[in-house]
Amino acid sequence: MNKEKINFTSSCAPGVPYMKNMIFIPANMPGSQMMSNINFIPANLPGVPYMNNSKHKQFKLSWWEENSFYYYPYMLISAFYGIQHKDFRKKFNISDDFIIIGDSGGFQNMTQNANLNKLNVLRWQEENCQIGLTFDEPILGNDSEKIKLKKQINTVKNAYYALDNKKKKDFKLYAVFQGHSLDEQKTIHDAYKEEGDITKFDGFAIGGMVPIAGNTCLITKILLTFIDNVKQYKKPLHFFGISGNKLLPLLIYLQLKLNIPITFDSSSFGGGAIRREFLFENNKLFFGRNKNHNLKEIPCNCPVCKLCLIDDFESKDSKSGGLISLHNLYKIIYNIEKLKSLSTDINLFKDYIKKNYPEKVNMLIDYIDEYFENGLLLANEKFKFKLKINDTKKSTQNKLFDF
Ligand SMILES: [Zn+2]
């Protein structure tokens, strides 16, 4: 922790879009504090021993730049936002070997009534990203069966359109799946097989989980269903919009069992800028308007906090929210790296999960074990009762539980 600059590259294959094991991708957007060219000048410069060795007197919030608080080599950008910046990397000072995954913007296209052109999306992705996710039409829980099917068919057609029109050889294209139930997943998988050669895609991604964020049981079920269909192709997988601390050990355990590279993205660290929400252990501290503490010092020694005074988090300008987001991001990455290291000794890993995570997470670890031993149908049958108890908290989502 005393290194001048924390560099999270130990588990990455440098510059290679195909990544080893489990990689977390922070979802970012132009307009965020991180991309706003903010410079932070620490007020307590002489008093901090850490600073005396630092060659920098001011720090950027952009984790891809040389003079940032720390370096992390990944980012996901939605084409919906990125497409407004043709030469995206140059504009935001992002080096060529920094890995950008380009989401298609399908979600924003639908929710914000935009009119994105799928060829323009593909060209932007090819120019700026190592990996592109195909242009999908996310299905929602309250869509009718007819609409769901139409969206799935369009998602498949768009994916093959991108495959046929792709020009850049080393650009990787992941086909996006949409579907919350066994049947819906089977429908889209069958559509992919009927429409063309599914093995030509470089990877597969599962989307549409943002509306059910926080429902750990349901997300685990959906991920296993997706995996059950695509694991035969032995290609890298991406899980969209995953947030929640409880899911992290499950994702790491899944990857370990599956032995296929998995990436997943989340923008939840951005709660720092939106709500001044500061991740601390298993709690959330709030600064600014919703302050829920009387702290005089920041209870954190991360590369961001060790250069900040508590007043830096209280000020009204956007910089303070950006600093909190960057702290949150560090905590998320650190937690994932810790769990990944622990998972190299499976007994120690399981023991740690037992002691530090709720019973539900441990039950889901058993569910994953059951899946890998006896298959999806038997695992779903055996855990039906336990999974439903946890799932039915939100009655509006009952339709999604028809497994
Ligand atoms: Zn911190």
What's the topology here?
Layout: E1 6-7, E2 22-28, E3 39-40, H1 49-52, E4 59-60, E5 70-71, E6 74-78, H2 79-82, H3 88-91, E7 99-103, H4 106-111, H5 118-128, E8 131-133, H6 145-165, E9 172-177, H7 182-195, E10 203-206, H8 216-230, E11 237-239, H9 247-258, E12 262-266, H10 271-275, E13 277-280, E14 283-286, H11 310-314, H12 318-342, H13 346-356, H14 359-374, H15 376-391
Parallel strand pairs: 1-5, 2-6, 2-12, 6-7, 7-8, 8-9, 9-10, 10-11, 11-12
Antiparallel strand pairs: 3-4, 13-14
Helix pairs in contact: 6-7, 7-8, 8-14, 8-15, 9-14, 14-15
The structure holds zinc ion.
Task: From the structure above, extract its key features.
single chain; 403 residues; alpha/beta; TIM Barrel; eight-stranded parallel barrel; two-stranded parallel sheet; 15 helices; 42% helix; globular; disordered N terminus; binds zinc ion
CATH architectural category: Alpha-Beta Barrel
Major sheet: size, sense and barrel closure? 8 strands, parallel, barrel
Q: How much beta, percentage-wise?
A: 5-15%
What low-confidence regions span 5 or more consecutive residues with pLDDT below 50? 1-19, 389-403
Structural class category: alpha/beta
Radius of gyration, in angstroms, nearest whole number: 21 Å
**CATH topology descriptor:** TIM Barrel
Instruction: Tell me the number of helical segments per DSSP (H or I, 4 or more residues long).
Output: 15
